[in-house]
Amino acid sequence: MGETLIHLRPEDYVTTAWSGGTTTQLRIFPEGAVYADRNFFWRISSATVAVKESDFTSLPDYHRLISVLEGEMILSHNGHEPFALQPYEVHAFEGSDATHSAGLCTDFNLMLRRNQAEGTVEALSLEAEERAVGLAPGLDEVLLYCAEGSCSVTCKGKELVIESRESLLIRQPEGGVLTLKSTGCARLMLCRMRRI
Fold it and tell me: Which helix (H) or strand (E) holds 155?
């Protein structure tokens, strides 16, 4: 199919309510998959948590990566000692864990189907600088989400600017690098995914 770059804006996302706030689905793979049907390889979302305490939905078929974009999140898994997740720190856990959360925040999530997909989430902070980020061959998709500020992104000669809450989706990236450039402070979340 070849590499494809897609500029995603908030109106392209799907936002739904849950018992403790809202969840905005930034990307689900494959196209047409439905979160409630649990028929996806990966799903990237950002949720607002507007209640002081909540329990995560059990997702036994999925591995999860989560980060806090703003606010506070204190997590505990399977009754173990709670711990605070620092802003832009990425924490991995299993969807089958009994997970309790305390604190009001906006978070960022990547869910990966166990034994069928793998991926990473990397938080990037730019301070009026240019940075090259490598993309390993063999990836199916890369999503770069701008959480704060704005960033110019160049990929194989193509350039675009993503503003706060916008994303760049790269299908079949075929390796290479992303060149990121910001004129001020920018905070980004970089997700790399592939089927296994």
Answer: strand 150-155
